[in-house]
Amino acid sequence: MKRRRILPATALALALAATPVWAQVKWDLAAAYPASNFHTENMAQLASEVDKATGGQLKITVHANAALFKAPEIKRAVQGGQVQMGEILLGNFQNEWQIFGIDSLPFLADSYEAAKKLYAAQKPFLEKKLAEQGMLLLYSVAWPPQGIGTKKTLRSAADLRGVKWRTYSPATARLAQLLGAQPVTVQAAELSQALATGVVEATMSSSATGMDNKIYEHLKYYYDTRAWLPKNAVLVNKKAFDALDKPLQQALLKAGTDADARGWSTSTQVNTDTTAKLKAHGMKIVEPPAALRADLARAGESMLKEWIATTGPEGQALIDAYRR
User: Fold this and answer.
1) Contact 60, 27 (CB under 8 A)
2) Is 9 part of a structural domain of the chain?
């Protein structure tokens, strides 16, 4: 019997058909800050590590600078499954649940050491709440401490009265009210334009956000108040996570743990570097006068009392855990 000769192409097709093929999983990660921001770079490294650890089975694409969703929309997008992952500023969602905004209360935690301690106390509350909302907290990293960028010198809060002050969260808006400034909500992606067009005349932000938006082109002074260290958190849609094979889940969780440690370490260095860069670009880096610091501290005390009154036993339990 004459054997039929199999052509090379046919043989290859038969071989591929007999070989198990894994399905590549593609995820999108919605981010609100520029690709050059250290938070975004941290996420890009996480995506690279996941890709490597899974042999390309889980591909995460980071969409920077609010390309997919604006900052206030990202949490809902993750929760609703419109995107598998997203990065949010926790304080943006304080009106939804006050615990989200505890790291934006002035002078409650005004150093990296204190901010880490506050996060340790807050984390169990966050994980429980996010789980109820169908999400997983992958990791969270603090911004550098918050300072005030202005066009004019400040001696006390009186010099902020009537000033159009950029705010980005419920806490920053309340602080502006207590100091007599005019709060104008502007997210990071729009800050540069808001300064250029006169929509805002001053800003409460980190030195990193200041460099991202080149505030030195419009503002002259940066008061290094170190008022608080707000955190960004990277969230994962729980249904999307549960649909992953166990090895992919483990790779993602491991990369999240590494990103958490790396991000906090990077933040401290970024604070030093970006403050120096603002100075190099002509901004005057100023220690806040005693009167201004006292005014800010009083506002912080008022905000903490309001926060505890609003949150009740849950908020008091968190404060107690932090202060132990």
Assistant:
1) yes
2) no
C-alpha to C-alpha distance for 303 and 106, rounded to whole angstroms: 8
Alpha-carbon span 87 to 235, nearest angstrom: 6
In a domain, 240, yes or no: yes
* Amino acid at position 289, single letter: P
Please return the burial class of 277, using the count of CB atoms within 10 Å of its CB with bins 0-12, 13-18 and 19+: middle
Q: In this structure, what DSSP letter does residue 25 have?
A: E
Query: Residue 186 maps to which CATH number?
Result: 3.40.190.170
pLDDT digits (tens, 9 = 90+) for 67-118: 999 999 999 999 999 999 999 999 999 999 999 999 999 999 999 999 999 9
Residue 2 within any structural domain of the chain:
no
List, for residues 225-250, the tens digit of each pLDDT value.
999 999 999 999 999 999 999 999 99
pLDDT digits (tens, 9 = 90+) for 16-32: 344 345 689 999 999 99
Q: What is the DSSP string of 260-313?
A: HHHHHHHHHHHHHHHHHHHHHTTPEEEPPPHHHHHHHHHHHHHHHHHHHHHHTH
Q: How many CB atoms lie within 10 A of CB 155?
A: 12
Looking at the domain assignment, is residue 14 inside a domain?
no
Residue 189 confidence (pLDDT): 84
Of the chain, the end-to-end C-alpha distance in Å amounts to: 88
Reported pTM: 0.87
How far is Cα 240 from Cα 220, in angstroms, rounded to an integer? Answer: 46
Listed in sequence order, the DSSP H helices in 138-245 are: 170-179, 191-196, 207-212, 238-242
- Reported as a single tens digit per residue, the pLDDT across 244-301 is 999 999 999 999 999 999 999 999 999 999 999 999 999 999 999 999 999 999 999 9
**Residue in 183, 190, 232, 219 with CA at minimum distance from that of residue 75:** 232
| Of 303, 72, 67, 298, residue with least CA distance to 185 | 72
